[in-house]
Each structure stands twice: as structure tokens, then as C-alpha cells.
Amino acid sequence: MPKVVDISELNSAELIPVMRRYYASRMLAFRGLKPFRLAGFIVVPLWLSLCFVFLKPTIAGVESWKLPLVYFPHINFSRPRVSDLFRFLIQLCWVIVVRQSPPARTRIGVDGGEQPSDEPLTLLWRFISKCKALLFANVLTRSMSRYIQQLESQSTSTSKTPSKKPVFLTALARTIVGVLLVILALMSFTVPLTVEDQFIFVSLLFLLAYALNRVPGHLPLMLMVGISLLVSGRYVWWRCTSTLNFDDPIGLVFGIGLLMAEAYAWLVMLLGYVQNIRPLHRGTVALPADSREWPSVDIMIPSYNEDLSVVRATVYACLGLDWPKEKLHIHILDDGKRDSFKDFAAEVGVGYIRRPTNNHAKAGNINYALAQTSGEYVAIFDCDHIPTRVFLQISMGWFLKDPKLALIQTPHHFFSPDPFERNLSNFRKVPNEGGLFYGLIQDGNDLWNSTFFCGSCAILRRGPLEEVGGIAVETVTEDAHTSLRLHRRGYHSAYLRAPLSAGLATETLSAHIGQRIRWARGMAQILRTDNPLFGPGLKWQQRLCYLNAMLHFLSGIPRLIFLTAPLAFLIFHAYVIYAPAMVLVLYVLPHILHSSITNSRMQGKYRYSFWGEVYEVVLSWYIARPTTVALFAPKKGSFNVTAKGGLVENSYYDWVISKPYMLLVLANFIGLGFGLYRYFNGPENEIGAVIVNMTWTLYNVLIIGSAVAVASEMKQVRRVHRVDTNIPAKVRLNSGHLIQATVMDFSLEGLRVAVQDMSRLPRGQFDIDIILMRANREFTFPMRSVYTLDNAMGLHLKPLSTEQMTDFVQCTFARADTWVKWQDSYDYDRPMASMAAVFRAAVYGYRRLFALAPRPFPDIARWLVRRFKYLSSFSPRKALPRAEQL
Amino acid sequence: MPLVIISGQRGGAGATTVVSNLAASLQNAGEQTLSIDLHPDNQLCLHFGVSQESVSGWAQAIATGADWKQCAFQASDGRRILPFGELAPYQFKRFREVLMSSIKSIADTFAVRQDEWVLIDMPVDRQQALSDNLISECYQAIYELADFSFYVAHPDLGTYRLLKQAALNGETLGDKQLYLLNEVDTNSALSLDIELLLKAEFAAQVLPASIHRDTAVPEAAAYMTAVNTYMPSSQASSDYHSLALWCLGRLGEDAENA
Fold first, then answer.
1. Is the minimum CB–CB distance between A162 and chain B shorter than 8 Å?
2. Which of A190, A442, A769, A834, by CA, is between 20 and 30 Å from A874?
3. Rounded to 10 degrees, what is the CA torsion of A638, A639, A645, A650?
């Protein structure tokens, strides 16, 4: 019976219980996992008493008795040690001197003006922000920034209205300007400068680029590209003319090798700039309102050796596509000739095509099916790519608008981590290897009408496809070759940067590398047999885009050269770059810096700085040989299928696959040893060269370390692949209770569900209904529990009808909102943070390497780690009150 | 402060339960609520943990000449309730006589109430439930004051037909009158489909938040408490939370300021 209760005030007579409560509750907060030590029993109550008597209740927003917990998070006051005294003093100095809350940075506004922050600054920060303001918010940079933005807004507003000048005049003017530009560029590449002049020149350019980097918009990026090209051009010219020592044969051989590798890198950089200068963010085109005017589509799901469970999800998702049923024909193209597939196709009512032969693998499979079907359009999904229901409705509009359009490609998005992401545990934290290609490069290609066909998640128009003889069979990358042929015939292509389908990434690193080897070999084959630079039908921009894609895969040998070049000096004492160290730094550093910041700005969300190198290093050794072979003998080699949905039985270190990296590690460490020897015992005038080469080697060691970390495979034991997720759901018990729940992962066979209140669930095995939401509709799926844990339960789907299975796939795999955030959820690249992440990955890699090495190494590694941890325990920490401490 | 009238679209739709649980959810969101029972059955106080034996209430008070402001209770979760009170047959006559004169002052008292949500449990069909035109006319005055009135309805064929019929006849609900779908049964495709249909066809008149059928709701009532206290993890608790958020969004202080 509720009633109004008078909340009695604290009774002042009972002082002792009050004090006991005061101490007991606060002592508990100081207690760690283990009970108090005697020293702790003295220190903590002493502090609490001091606090009670002398301090006000809250200081700086924190209850004052909690101050030690907040500002000395690494000290356990309940069990203080002698060394804690030093930690305490160090941290005390740190807290007093250095600002703990996030630094209030001076912001340089869009117009280049300084925006004062409202927070008070410490002396140090004030000095730094003054310097920044002086550099980037002075009158000069501000007016430049304003001028550039004005220019940009003018050009975007005038480009809409057609130019009134005659075409030939503008063309002529363009040619003249172009020729002038090339002459000017060549002049500035080749003008010799003294060391001091070069220093001033590159410093000014760097400041300019840094200031430009702060100006938003497209024009500044183009200017940065220009500066980067200028600096790199000067570097290449300098390298060619004044760094080769023709008197030293060994040095010359190494030097020319390095020069070739650098020329390659320079060319790829140049082509990359052209390719990505202005990504075309294509929108969607609406379909006619009357669905009777929509064309018919054949959906082809080629499969060779994949598990039926993998294919089932895709088929169910295709059945759920929003398209008139009589105009949508789904076909499973089974090259594995399995009756289980045939039965499944008959059961759910989709087409099943099996061909008598197996030649030309996937391309042949699709070509055979093309002859058996008749839809106006052909959509191709690898059997592990699951389309969302809107796939066709969103992408088909362009075909109806542009009759010359032959291909629409959409990104390959993966809801499971690829080997890089899994082994480095950075899934959805760092853009993955494909992020750059599908986020930026394809969009850049689209501007030049040279989107590549990527084999899956794409729609082709049947007419043009049959005109070029179906999918190309001559090379192992049939997809890119097919789109090349379509482009040669003058057909258009489009790229729709929307993740309309998702699939499984390759499971193991070896499978991943196998796939890349195939792509690399295929690209090299195309380069030989159907070189995009020659032959009819292509515009020069298209030729460059294709060339860049193919050159990208030839990166193996150049990358290996970069990884070993400094060793030539450190070990063999051969001057690969015959120049004084100071001059070398003045030329090479600007080249690297400018290309880094320009690429960082260009690729910002899609590829973080330094990760590209890691990806390349992992592949370099393996693609070096096949690409070289394919370049010289394009007909050799066989087709290897990418195996997906596999199992990594144990958490194992892939010794076989990481062998080359270990060789490189060894070589680089030996090089470092030689470097140290030379530093202390070498002649005086070589010290600069030693330092430069050792820095380079250290960088290589870092990158290789990350590659080693990638090679350590993590365990993966489930048969059916599960997708981690976080979808709200409800469970209904037989009693009629509805309980809120969250789906933690799902597969085609069941779910793992976290229920808020597990105590309500029955014991043992029980039947339960899961209610999933999609587009405000609720779908109920009967399940049976498999196991129940403290915080989650595993559920197995009961047999469902085809319609229910389609709903299930729509509610899980094919729901767009689980990955709709996709690439936009990544932050913009921050090169230093990215460097730190690569560094952490490298440390992880070396630790694993040592832990798995033969006997004395693990002990040494452990000892080193312990020492390091002990020393680092003294380092000051960032002290910010956590939410629960406020 | 906001005044919300909640009545069933017909008897048994669960209006009394909705009042109790919505009050609890608003209370949980940091608002003070006062629920008023206008139903002679005097059921609402049971949801607030008021003893079965208690007879006091506003109607009983005005009938006996006592001060009705002294009849409110506060439940352990902070919800306040003004019960109807138990009226003996002889008191009912007296109640009728004084209602007309006191209802005005009662209503005025609520209208100026600050920082408190007033939820009113209105009898379903005023003519039949009270079999008295006089009382229903008195109650009608309260509708003038309401910021919103919710009609609690089940997502079934009857509700659909009623809404459809009203639409065909050209009857329009005011923009402050909304249907709240209660006991949406996830076990029944029909229930789900009609919910979908109602929300699509009468989007302006159906509240976007609806309440699922959940055994936890009657259980909570049997425990004389609200479902968000009895079983916070239940779906119904979450549904009422959404409903409370909707109300706050429409009628809360921030919404008024905006």
C-alpha cells in the first residue's frame, strides 16, 4: 500500500556509523582484484581523511576523493609498491605540466582565418597555436585560400552553361596551353639548383602544399597534384642524371634496378593521379512508374565447388529481389555437376543449368548459360554474393536512360573480415584492401567511362555481351578483359558506388593470395595479348585507366627491390644512389612527402597511409613470379578457383606462406647490424649515408613486420559461416512473453541471440520464436535452442518453407542497413595515427614470430617484453575521468 | 502541462492498463505524472498498488463532502493516482448532484497544473458505461482541455471496419485524436497485417508506436505494478517506452519551446 514517506534526515548523533559508511564505500572503490596490503591500509584512509577534512567535495568536476583514481590510473593504491612512488611523481609532473583534456587546437577556418577556441590554453599550446596561426592564417595564405575558393565556385557555376566559343578554337587553345605546360614542366624538372636553392625551393613548395591541404574543395587537390608531380619530376630527373656511378659496376647494377623500380612507382603514381582526379559519384536513375515497361533480367549464379549452404543464401536473396516475377529468371550455373544443387533448384523453383564440359571455367560456364537463356539483361552474382532486394531497382535505371550502356558494376562488399582484417583484428576500423578500388578507383574510372567489370555484382546488357562473344575466355581475369572488349566497341560502362550486395571474404591468407595471383597473372596476360595502349576503339584516358590497373599488379618486383635496396649499401657497401646523403634527402624526402599527403587527401577515407605498402608487401613475393611468367609466356598456367567458406582448423602460423617475409626480416636485421657496425667504425663521410639507409631499412622492417602479422592465421571453427551483427529483435517464449533481444550473429542455419534477461528463459532445450524486423514489418521464425549461456543463446532454425527462408535471408543477409554505413563510417585518414597502427601491427607480428620460433627465441622475446612493460609502466598516462567516475 | 485522455475504442481494449504503463514510462523518463480515474469501476488504482480495501477517491470525496485533493496516492515508483473511489448506491445519487458544480473546479485545477503530466482514464462509451447523460456531458468538458486523446484499439477486423466506415462517412477525427494499437499479436499474421494496413491507410490517425501482446503486461497488473518495473526486459516495456518518448516529443517541454 503506497503512502507518502517522510525521508528522515541524517541523524547527527550517529557519527560512527556514518564515518564507517564513508570509509567502507570509498575504500571499496580503491580496491583492485586483490585485497589491500598493509601499506594500502595506511595510504588510502589517510588520503580519505585528508580529503574529508581539507578538500571541497568536487574538484574539476570529479568528486575529490576520486582524484587519485582519475589522475593516477596506473597505480594501485590498495597495494602500493616502492616503485609506485616514482610513478606517482612522474605522473604528478605530467598532470601539472600537460593539459589532460583533449587539446583545444587552433582551428584554421575555411577562409583561412583563425578561429579562436573558447577553452583556455596552457602555455605550450598557446605557443604551438601561435606558430600554426602564423604559418597558415597569415594574410598571404588567407587571401590565397579565399581566391582559390572563389575560382572554384566560379568554375563550377560556369561549367553548367555551354561555352559559346567555337569548338576548334577551344581545342586549339587547349593544345597550346598543354604544350606550354609540358615545356614549363620539363624546364622546372631539369633546372639545376644548388643545395641551398633546392632546400629553399622544396621548403616553400612544402609549405604551399601544406597550406593548400587546409583549403577544402577540388581545385586545391589538383594544385597539390601539380606540386607533387613537379617535385617528383625533379627527383626522377636528378636520379637519372646525377646519381648513377658508371665507375662502380656493382653499384651501377643495383642502382639501375632501383631506378627502374622507382620509375615504375612514379608511373603508377602519375597514372593514379589521372585516374582518381575527379571521382564521378554517379547517382541513380528512376525506373518508369509502370513496371510493365521494365526489362527482363536473367540472374546467373555460377558455382563450381562451393558448398550448397553458401549458394542457398544467394538464391533465397535473389528470390526476394523486387522485380516483376515473370521478368526475373534465376539460374544456378553448376559446373560441379552436383545433384544436390539440382534438387535444391527444383525445390525452390529456380533454373538449373549444367553443361557437358568444363572448359574455360567460370567464363565458359556463363557463356554456355547465355545460349540457354534469353533475358534482355544478365546479372551475375558469384554464389557467395548476396544481393539486397533493391539491387535491380536501383541499378537498372541507367540502362533505360543510356542505350549504349553495356555494363553496370557495383562494389563487392564483404560482411566478413578478409585475412588482413582478421589477422590484424582491424575489421571495420581500417579500410580494407578493396576499399580503395571500390571506393575511389572505380568511381574515378567511371569519369573516363572505363569502369571495369569485376565478375560479380554487375549487370550486363545481353546484346553487346553477345556481340563481343560473351565473357572473354582467353585470360584468367575474364571480367576485366570482357569490359575492355566492350569499351573497344564503344559501349559505355557505369559504376554505382552503393553496396547493393555483400558476400564472404576469402577465409585464409593463402586463398587470398591465390586469388590475387590469379588476378595478377590475368592482368599481365591482357597486357600481352590485348594491350590497352594499342588496338582500336579506346580513348586515351581509357587506355591509361586500364594500363594503371594492369601495372598495379606488376608491383611485385619493384616492391621487393624497395625492400632490399638499402641492404646493398649496408651489406655490400655499394652506392645504389651515388650522391651525398644531404642532397639525397633534399630530393627524395619532398618526393615521398608530397606524394604521401596528396594521396592521403585523395584516398582519405578509402585507404589509410602506409597500409597500401603493407598490402603490397604481403603480395609482392607471390605475384612477382607469376606476373613475370605471364608477361613473357601469356598462355602458360591454369585457372585456380578462389575457395571460400573454408575453415582454418587451428590458430596457426602459416610458416609456408610467411617464409619469404622471414627471409626479408632476416636480411633486414643483418643489414641493420652492418649499419650499426658502419656507423661506429666506418669513415666519417659515410655516416650520413648510413643513417639514411638505416632509416629506410627500419621502415622496411616495420612494413614487413605488419606483413608477418598478417600471416598469423586466427582460428575459425564453424562449418557455416556466421556473420557478426547487431540487429534488434524480439524473442517470444511459449508462455507468451515477448522479450527484447539482440541478434549477435547469424547464418543460414541459425542465430546467436543475446536476451536482456536470461533468467526468464526455460532450462535445457526449448522451442522459441524469433521476431525480426525489416522495413517496419515483423517476421516470426520458429527456432530451437542449441545452447544457453549467461549472456547469449544459440538457436537453430526449424524447417521453413521457401517463402519463409526468403524472408529470413531478407531479414538477415540481404538487409541493407547492416552495411549501409559502409565506407562512410571510416574517418578521414590521419597519417600519423595510421603510422602508429602499422607500428602496432608490426610489433604484434614480431611478437608472434618470436613466440612461435624455436626454443631460445620465445624466452628472449618474453624477457624483452617484460622489461619493456616494466619500463613503460613508469610512463605518464593520459588522465581523463571515465564516465562512471564523474 | 500536458493532459492526455485515454479511452478504449470499446470495452476490454486495455485503456486502463495503458494509462498505468504509460504513466510508469513517463515517470521513468523523468516526468511527474498524475493519473485520474474517471471510471466508476475504480479499476485503475489496482495498477498502482492501492489496496483493494481502499474506498477513497475523488468521486467518493465530492459525494461525501470531503476534500478530493486529499485522495491522491503515490506509488513506489513515483506515479501519482487519483482514484475514482468506491461509491455506494446511495452515494451515487449525491455524486450526480454535485458533479456538475465540482467538475468545473476539478478540471480547472488540472488545467493549470505545472510540471505534471495528467493522464485520464476515460470510460469507453460514455452513454452506456454510465447510463447517464448528465455525467457524460460533464466529462465532455474535460475533452476541451485535452492536448491529446488516445483511443486504444486492437488491430483486428472490427477496428479496421470502424475506421474505414468513419472515413467513408466523411467523419474526421480531430488532429489531436489518435488510435493506439494495443496487443499486436506477433503470432498472428492477420494481426500484423492489419497493423501494417492501419498504419499505412490511416497514417495520420494511428500512433506510430503500438503495443505488442505480451504476457508480462497482465502479470504486471496482477503484481499491482507497471510492466517496466515488473519486467524491464520485456517487449511491452520497450513499447511503452517508445510511446512515452513519442508523447514527450510531441508534448514535452522541449517540444513546446521549439
1. no
2. A834
3. 20
At A643 the pLDDT is 43
C-alpha cell at A875: 610512463
- The answer, yes or no, to whether ipTM is higher than 0.95 is no
Q: Quick one: average pLDDT of A786-791?
A: 84
Cβ atoms < 10 Å from Cβ of A18? 13
Q: How confident is residue A646, by pLDDT bands cut at 50, 70 and 90?
A: very low
Buried b (16+ CB within 10 A) or exposed e, A498-523: bbbbbbbbbbbbbbbbbbbbbbbbbb
Whose cell is 551483427? That residue is A725
The answer to whether A153 contacts chain B (CB < 8 Å) is no
Residue of A nearest to B51 (CA): A1
Coarse DSSP helix, strand, coil percentages of chain B, rounded to the nearest 5 percent: 50, 15, 35
Region at A300 (left for phi over 0; alpha for psi -120 to 50; beta for the rest): beta
What backbone torsions phi and psi does residue B179 show, to the nearest 5 degrees? -90, 135
pLDDT of residue A648: 47
Asked whether the beta carbons of A778 and B185 are under 8 A apart, the reply is no
The answer to whether B48 contacts chain A (CB < 8 Å) is: yes
Residue at A691 is within a domain: no
Contact between A737 and B214 using a beta-carbon 8 Å cutoff: yes
Q: Which of A1, A739, A777 is closest, CB to CB, to B235? A: A739
Residue contact A757–B238, C-beta within 8 A? no
Q: Within a domain: residue A250?
A: no
Burial class of residue B60 (count of CB atoms within 10 Å of its CB; 0-12, 13-18, 19+): buried
Q: Which residues of B touch A771 (CB under 8 A)?
A: 186
Please answer yes or no on whether B232 and A776 come within 8 Å at the CB atom: no
Domain count, chain A: 4
Is the Cβ pair B233, A760 closer than 8 Å?
yes
B3-250 CATH choice from 3.90.1580.10, 1.10.3720.10, 3.10.350.10, 3.40.50.300: 3.40.50.300
Residue A479 designated active-site: yes
Instruction: Write down the catalytic residue from A84, A334, A443, A479.
Output: A479
A791 touches chain B (CB under 8 A): no
pLDDT tens digits for B10-69?
Answer: 888 889 999 999 999 999 988 888 898 988 888 898 899 888 888 888 888 888 888 888
Indicate the SS3 state at residue A753: strand
Own/partner pairs, A843-846, CB within 8 angstroms, 24+ separation: A843/A705, A844/A424, A844/A709, A845/A705, A845/A706, A845/A707, A845/A708, A845/A709, A845/A710, A845/A711, A845/A712, A846/A705, A846/A708
**B236 neighbourhood in chain A, CB within 8 Å:** 738
**A334, A335, A418, A829: the active-site residue:** A335
**Closest-approach residue (CA) in chain A for B212:** A738
Please list the residues that pair with B73 across neighbouring strands.
Answer: B81
